[in-house]
Please model this.
Amino acid sequence: MSIYVGNLSFDVTEADVREVFAEYGTVKQIYLPTDRETGRFRGFAFVTLGTEAEEGKAIADLDGAEWMGKEMKVNKARPKEQNGSREGGGGAGGPGGFRRREGGGGGGRPPRSGF
Model:
């Protein structure tokens, strides 16, 4: 099992997370996801402790606790959903996020004729 820890301060480090969860048992693994483009911490973590009992106690004690000025959300991590598609997002619009008008636009004026 793994623990999801959400709503973390963007200033948190792996050492900070390790220190908090070490009070509940052996910390086997910590993962702090970062943004692909900026490299900035995304505000949540995954923690694996030595036993499910240790993880259960950490979840019970830490969910809703205030830490570094924020109220943590701590629960059992769920498996990442696989939907068979690599496309994401809202699906609204095509490339560029806008649609051209028929006839090439022209600021909404009717097409000119006779020129």
Summary: The beta strands are 3-6, 27-31, 45-49, 66-67, 70-71, 73-76. The two ends are 74 Å apart (CA to CA).
